[in-house]
Write a structure and sequence with these properties.
This protein is α/β, with parallel strands linked by helices and 333 residues long. The protein has 12 helices and 10 strands. The strands form 2 sheets. The chain has a 6-stranded mixed sheet, sandwiched between helices. A 4-stranded parallel sheet has the order 2-1-3-10, with helices on both faces. 49% of the residues are buried.
């Protein structure tokens, strides 16, 4: 059934394909994926090589980056240096509205992609935190939504505080509902279920649950929950009562990056699951950081998800990006 969900996401993307930039033209997997994406009408891809960077445009972006970040120590010389990096250039194209989304990371470490994301893109004021998630498609699995679950955070925040965990939960819930058109049921995971153990690690998660409920009162969020209590109805019935999440969770929030990253890779390899992501959360503009072990199919599906997120953004929110036309005339690539 999860394959039907993935095909549904691709079909949604085809209905209103958005412009997605790919700054990794040296990777054969990216080039193969882009050929398919273009042929199938999933997106309108733009390939950005080093030779495609326009010097005049580069200087414009450097000026904008300097103005936006000078209060945090950015110098003009540093901004000009950063704009020689394709990821920064591509992220500024996204920030300024010339493209609708960005997909990268197949040939670069997460740190490379995230530096450009954090420095160049708008951060959601309500969340104020950049994190990530994976959409996991698990064959022959009845858990989640027909074998589809969201795992977070698996790529960005090493040891989130209770406040940060709460924000990761809210971001992940909003993402899941945007992509799946289903209510999110968020389980905040731990080695404890509702006080079955105690200690600072458990307290961190239980406090995060309280904070997350205040941030998003219209969402089903519960915890702390062990993984089986979150997923298995029979276990939930034995351990817990009156929970809208236990035994029915479709969004799993891991307490640390260790747990999240190990969890998604074990699921991917042992259960032969599809891991779509990492998908960056907390930015206004949609972008994705691929795993360096990604396949062509992974790139296609990450792109389809990024397109659907861009569709939601264009429908549901005002464009808060810098309008570069007010400052300069765009010269193109």
């Amino acid at each position: 059934m999860y394959r039907d969900v993935i095909q549904s996401i691709r079909s949604k993307a085809r209905k209103d394909p958005k412009t997605i930039i790919f700054p990794e033209t040296e990777d054969a997997r990216v080039m193969s994926a882009v050929d398919y994406i273009r042929a199938e009408g999933i997106a309108e891809p733009i390939l950005l090589s080093q030779n495609d960077i326009d010097p005049f445009q580069q200087q414009q972006f450097a000026c904008l980056l300097y103005e936006a970040k000078k209060g945090k120590g950015m110098t003009m010389a540093k901004a000009q240096e950063l704009m020689q990096d394709r990821h920064f250039y591509a992220a500024m194209m996204l920030r300024c509205g010339f493209v609708d989304g960005m997909v990268s990371g197949a040939a670069h470490a997460t740190a490379v992609v995230m530096r450009a994301v954090i420095n160049c893109l708008d951060i959601n004021d309500r969340i104020g935190l950049v994190s990530s998630c994976f959409l996991m498609g698990i064959p022959n699995c009845s858990y989640g939504e027909g074998g589809v679950l969201c795992y977070a955070d698996c790529g960005v925040m090493p040891d989130p505080t209770s406040e940060q965990l709460a924000k990761i939960a809210v971001s992940s819930a909003a993402f899941f509902e945007d992509i799946m058109d289903k209510p999110a049921r968020v389980a905040m995971l731990s080695f404890s279920s509702k006080g079955s153990a105690n200690g600072p690690w458990v307290e961190k998660v239980s406090k995060a649950v309280e904070l997350a409920k205040k941030l998003k009162s219209d969402c089903f969020i519960d915890g702390e929950l062990q993984a089986d209590s979150a997923l298995v109805p029979e276990v939930a019935a034995l351990k817990l009562k009156d929970s809208a999440v236990a035994g029915k969770a479709n969004v799993l929030i891991f307490p640390t990056l260790d747990a999240g990253n190990i969890g998604y890779k074990l699921t991917e390899r042992l259960a032969h699951a599809r891991a779509i992501g990492p998908l960056i959360l907390g930015t206004i503009q949609p972008c994705s950081d691929l795993s360096r072990g990604c396949s062509v199919e992974d790139i296609i599906d990450v792109t389809a998800v990024t397109v659907v997120r861009a569709q939601k953004r264009s429908l549901g929110s005002q464009n808060v990006s810098i309008n570069l036309d007010k400052h300069y005339a765009y010269t193109g690539l």
